[in-house]
């Protein structure tokens, strides 16, 4: 019997806040607190207009070695660790797969992802590809991938090796339970230990950016209003006070 570890999930309030913040603001804040690059290079959105956030279930793929994993697709399904990462799915989870940028091996297909959707999973991030595109598109999951292939996961070059361990996806380290945020700009990783800081700093940025956006729409000077200059700060403070008195 194969046993794989579960993850520790962050508070839902953090996840919801980061979904509202989005990738661009969150990655900017992360850079200011020491995480130079949280953006995965490779997976891109196949779900235009979608923004998701959730804890990472992780799957590590390695180059296939036939003496370790030489069976056919269905000879012993329980040896297929890509199944086991899905067994852990709870509502709102995001599966993140280090598929090494491989463009030949479809990590999951329609049946596996139907199970994932039925368990409440919301998104799949793969530095690689899926299969069964027409049917997978119909599931309504958030998908960030390199593309699609007709091949199944171990048909060519890869084998599943570990579940809920640290992985690299798109050049970024992902720890099990990290908060994944993904939208049309791409996918970022928010370390759980920095989530509260990112949320607090992002909210502060949103406040002055709303003010600056208004001024720029009115033809204001970019040098004065973005980023907010010290000279414009009294205007901003007066605007903020007026907003507090007359909220929308």
Can you walk me through this structure?
The longest helix is centred in the last third of the chain and has 23 residues, at about 195-215. The chain contains eight helices and twelve strands. The protein has helices at about 10-20, 25-30, 80-85, 110-120, 135, 195-215, 220-225, 235-245; strands at about 45, 50-65, 95-100, 125, 130, 140-145, 145-150, 160-165, 165-170, 170-175, 180-185, 185-190. α1 packs parallel to α6 (about 195-215). By secondary structure, the chain is α/β, with parallel strands linked by helices. The strands form three sheets. Strands 1, 2, 3, 4, 6, 8, 11 and 12 form an eight-stranded mixed beta sheet that branches. It has a two-stranded parallel ribbon with strand order 5-7. A two-stranded antiparallel ribbon has the order 9-10. The protein folds into two domains: about 10-195, Ribonuclease E inhibitor RraA/RraA-like (Glucose Oxidase, domain 1, 3-Layer(bba) Sandwich), CATH 3.50.30; about 195-245, no CATH class.
């Amino acid at each position: 019997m194969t046993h794989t570890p579960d993850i520790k999930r962050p508070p839902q309030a953090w996840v919801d806040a980061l979904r509202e913040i989005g990738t661009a603001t969150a990655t900017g804040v992360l850079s200011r607190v020491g995480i130079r690059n949280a953006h995965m290079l490779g997976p891109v959105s196949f779900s235009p207009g979608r923004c998701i956030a959730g804890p990472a279930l992780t799957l590590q793929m390695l180059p296939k070695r036939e003496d370790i994993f030489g069976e056919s697709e269905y000879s012993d399904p329980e040896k297929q660790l890509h199944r086991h990462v899905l067994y852990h799915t709870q509502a709102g989870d995001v599966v993140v797969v280090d598929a090494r940028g491989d463009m030949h091996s479809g990590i999951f297909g329609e049946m596996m992802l139907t199970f994932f959707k039925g368990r409440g999973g919301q998104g799949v991030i793969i530095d690689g590809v899926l299969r069964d595109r027409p049917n997978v598109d119909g599931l309504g999951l958030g998908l960030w991938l390199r593309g699609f292939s007709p091949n199944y996961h171990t048909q060519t070059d890869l084998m599943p090796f570990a579940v809920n361990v640290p992985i690299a996806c798109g050049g970024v380290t992902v720890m099990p339970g990290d908060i994944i945020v993904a939208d049309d700009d791409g996918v970022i990783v928010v370390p759980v230990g920095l989530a509260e800081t990112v949320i607090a700093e992002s909210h502060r940025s949103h406040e002055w950016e709303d003010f600056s956006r208004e001024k720029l729409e009115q033809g204001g000077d970019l040098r004065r209003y973005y980023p907010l200059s010290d000279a414009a700060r009294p205007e901003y403070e007066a605007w903020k006070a007026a907003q507090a008195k007359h909220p929308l």
